Amino acid sequence: MTDVIRRVDRQSRGTAVGRNVGRLDAAVKMSGRAEFVGDLEIPRMLFGAVLRSPVAHARIVGLDTSEAERMPGVVAVLTRDDLNDLDPFYGHAIRDRPIIALEKVRFVGEPVAAVAATTVAQAEAAILHIDVEYEELPVAANIASALDPAAPILHEGQLRSGAAHGLGDLPDRVGNICYQYAIERGHIETTDASAAIVIDREYTFPAVYQYSMETHAVIAKYSGGEIRLWANCQHPFLVRAEIAMLFDLAIEQVRITVPFLGGGFGSKSYTKMEPLAVALARKAGRPVKIVNRVDESMVTSRRHGMKCRMRTTATEGGRLLGREAQFWLDTGAYADNGPRVTATAGDAAPGPYRWQAFRVDGQCVYTNTSPSGSYRAFGATHLQWIGESQIDEVARAAGIDPLDLRRENLLHRGDEIRSRGKPLDADLIGDVEKAAAAIGWGRERLANRGMGVSVGLLAAGAHPVSMATVKMGATGGVAVLVASTEMGQGTRTVMAQIAAEVLTVPFSSVVVAGADTGFTPYDRSTGASRSTTVAGLGVERAAREVLDSLLETAQEVFGVEDPACLEVRDGAIWNGTDSRTMAELVVSRFGFIGGELVGHGEVKPESGSGSYEEGPVFWEVCVAAAEVEVDPETGVVTVLQTATVADVGTAINPKLVERQDEGATVQGLGNALFEEMIFAEDGNLLNDTLLDYRVPTTMDLPERMTSIIVENHDGPGPFGAKGCGEGAFAAVPAAIVNALADAGVLMNELPLTPRRVWQRIQQLEHRSSER
Amino acid sequence: MMQLESTINGRCTQLEVNDNELLLDVLRDHLGLTGTKRSCEVEVCGACTVIVDGLPVSSCMLLASEIDGAEVVTIEGLRDTTFYERAQEVFTRHATVQCGFCTPGLLLTLWSLTDGRLGPLRDLREELSGNLCRCTGYQSILAAAEELTS
Ligand code: FES
Ligand code: FES
Fold first, then answer.
1. Which of A281-295, A388-402, A417-431 has the lowest average pLDDT?
2. A98 in a structural domain
3. How far apart are CA A395 and CA A320, in angstroms?
4. Which residue, among B114, B109, B98, B123, has the nearest Cα to B45 in the 3D structure?
5. Which residues of chain A neighbour B20 with C-beta distances below 8 Å?
């Protein structure tokens, strides 16, 4: 394989990679013609509405749908009674979630029944006429109450492991703890002997909502032995497998088409509304469309809230010794991606430093709240602000500049990160120095202002299995079939650039359609910053196969024995000064204006099984710097500037890389400063609209945001690329927290709302006046 | 049920709507104008923005009956303007479009800012604070808006 790549590299010189080409989908999206699931209609389609539980934990003792069934326009009402012929549990990590509530409900918002009717209004009217009798059970609405020995147990019995968690054998459930992840290096006890600085604190991280502006939406069609779905899912192939399993069909009998996604950020990863929609369509005997409202999507997926205790030790001179971390992630009533989030958080806990020893113990906890799944940079975002805050505390205690302390203690390229898996593949010191310089690190500090930096790593790439097909037709046009879902990140554009580069054709001659499991080859998922790196490599390989076919035909046409004498440029193959366009070569290959060249690209684990512990594909760098100002009278924190580093190996499209980091910065800022889902003791979500769950607007922006692209051409993806787009999310809250501590307010709880910060300032003032 | 007549994207349109129907639903479901997007439904996000008699409004909060006799422009109508042509070039150059779900509403807001009817422009950040975008981080939106309004 290497041979082929080297040969073609010398021969082919494209111009598409590294350029800020305009997005393929800009025009169609601006015009309003871009189709999202909510815009689609299929023949005979009905509309679904979902009746959701008003209580957090209860046994369903009565369920009467007779009145609803008689309502105008109603075609079908789905309840647990319609699932008797199925094993109705799904969950890629833990098969703990029924398609619709069976004997119990476990969170406010859990689907209890669903109606299919001719119009949305009719369906919504009908669900109000379903009578449900609940026998309420004790509620564990937060981590503390779920861990209490007297807590109600959400899931009795043995948990079944799902098919796609990639985490090896899952440990048994202990009480409400559904997954545990522990890592240990060296003997933490022995490091205490030389410790002069000990930082030991508890921390709280909020549950937050991804808020992709497009809510979860799906159209399902069930017809004898075949299921079709139009869904805004990020991982259509994993959803396909779960739907096939649930409805007892072969995987190939399920087909999922994914149009444009109106944002994802992890909220649409894995299986969400699809099983319910299929079950409803099966009952109705007609296709059904379900489009969530925002309040429904808020209880469909969210980010885990967390409690953490961390302890860091160092020598008097600021040499880091040991770190211990224990944390508890609130995964809500069903595991969703909780186990993976726990593992990723565990890996992020030590931070990329040269420890003598560390010990990490993470627990994923069921509570009677809505399920938590993936959100951009999960795990890393949870832990980085805590770890980095302790690093800065060490620096302050040792009297060392935080940047210098990092220079002394950070891991270097090639250093081991965990006993199995990939060593460090980036220059962290160089990265953090760039971020610090960008905000003017070392400048004299003004009153109530502070600066902070943060460094971390995120296990990226997920399971490295992706396929792609590249086709070239007789007019020289190129089609790329790849299942990375276009959710705003620009994957279609980047894939087109990669194919154009290999084939030396104009970017504009490449077409990239969306994912359709019936036609696009397998791609594990769109997430974990993997598309450019993993699926992109598949596209590169597929394009090279097409190129090989072209070279083969060119050899015949030119009568040349050695393909190495041929040169590929400008969409043509050259033999000295003689050339044939690629279109001409396709025509001469098939003898008429028709036929097509098809290249297949396969990416699989290079060694081992590609499991989580053997990974990751690459370590995504999470580096940022921030400057903040705090108003001691009000507790209001203003982020004055941020700088983030996208260490991407090679930027296929630099502008798209910048957009990724800008978007991640602002989401990170919201998570750090004010976003928080507030659950009451009874499990009710108190702020379930965008009126009281606030996300950043233009008014919340820092005056200056700098995104720095670092290109060391050291990634495992095409042309030395590696992924980006998540690292900044993990790094920004950490940099903000450190900047605020630098301004004199050390916080151990997010978000940094004025009230919380003000209270902390009062505490600090009180303490210093007592002294 | 009520009958109403309004000019939608330059075309005189007769509609029969329920008293409680929202303009957003009428545009999307009755008229198939799906470029107008539904998201927050509480007048926060701006995805459903359309222009009614020259002013940007959230169609998720306006009863359809209110547009009787009014002139409505949606993204489908904006496409034929010279503003749109310029916007296309500027948005593409700044890579302002990401998932695109906020884009139609944003374009209509921007258009209303350029025609002077809203009076002198305030700070652009303020003007655009009613159009959420979860993808871009707003830098590319502000850069494009700067060009389009100057
Ligand atoms: S949907 Fe109308 S403002 Fe959000
Ligand atoms: S581009 Fe996705 S919300 Fe703005």
1. A417-431
2. yes
3. 10
4. B109
5. none
Q: Do A705 and B137 touch (CB under 8 A)?
A: yes
* Ligand 2 binding pocket includes B98 (Cβ within 6 Å): yes
pTM of the model: 0.96
Confidence of residue A166 (pLDDT cuts 50, 70, 90): confident
Ligand 1 pocket test target in B22, B23, B37, B42 with most atoms within 8 Å of CB? B42
CB of A574 closer than 8 Å to CB of A566: yes
pLDDT digits (tens, 9 = 90+) for B18-47: 999 999 999 999 999 999 999 999 999 999
Distance, in Å, from the CA atom of A493 to the CA atom of A489, rounded to the nearest integer, reads 9
Q: Same structural domain for residues A82 and A95?
A: yes
CATH number for A487 = 3.30.365.10
What is the side-by-side order of every strand in the sheet holding A74-78?
A: A74-78, A111-117, A46-52, A288-291, A217-223, A226-231, A254-257
Structural domain containing residue A82: 43-139+210-298
pLDDT at A312: 98
Percentage, residues of chain A above pLDDT 90:
93
Query: Which among A283, A298, A313 is the end of a domain?
Result: A298
Place of tokens 């699989």: A604
The residues facing A94 across adjacent strands are A161
Please provide the distance, in angstroms rounded to a whole number, between the alpha carbons at the two ends of chain B: 45
Q: Quick one: A457 and A469 in the same domain? A: no
Ligand 1 midpoint to CA B107 (Å): 15
Residue range B62-114, pLDDT digits in tens: 999 999 999 999 999 999 999 999 999 999 999 999 999 999 999 999 999 99
A443/A198 Cα distance (integer angstroms): 29
For residue A13, the model assigns a pLDDT of 59
Residue-wise pLDDT tens digits, A607-659: 888 887 888 999 999 999 999 999 999 999 999 999 999 999 999 999 999 99
Chain A contact present for B12, CB below 8 A: no
Residue A681 designated active-site = no
3-state secondary structure A582-633: HHHHHHHHHCCCCCEEEEEEEECCCCCCCCCCCCCCEEEEEEEEEEEEECCC
* Listed residues A603, A627, A654: the one ending a domain: A603
- Please tell me the predicted confidence (pLDDT) of residue A10: 39
Inter-chain touch A659–B126, beta carbons under 8 Å:
no
Nearest to A7 by CA among A532, A639, A403, A566: A566
CB A453 within 8 A of CB A403: yes
Q: pLDDT category, A12, cuts 50, 70, 90? A: low
Tell how strand A567-569 and strand A510-512 pair up: unpaired
Task: Provide DSSP, A346-396.
Answer: HHHSS-SB--SEEEEEEEEEE-SS------SSTTHHHHHHHHHHHHHHHHH
Inter-chain CB proximity A26 and B129 less than 8 Å: no
Instruction: Sort out which chain B residues have CB atoms less than 8 A from A665's CB and list them.
Output: 137
Which atom of ligand 1 lies nearest, measured to the CA of B37?
Answer: 1
CA distances from A480 to A114, A454, A487, A491, A539 (A): 39, 39, 17, 12, 7
Residues B70/B53, Cβ–Cβ less than 8 Å = yes
Give yes or no: residues A234 and A283 share one domain.
Answer: yes
Residue A729 to residue A295: CA distance in whole angstroms: 24
Domain ranges within chain B, ordered by starting residue: 2-76, 78-148
CATH number of the B2-76 domain: 3.10.20.30
Q: Which value does ipTM take for this structure? A: 0.98
Q: Which residues of A touch B92 (CB under 8 A)?
A: 22-23, 26-27
What is the three-class DSSP state of A54? coil
CATH topology for B78-148 is DNA polymerase; domain 1 (1.10.150)
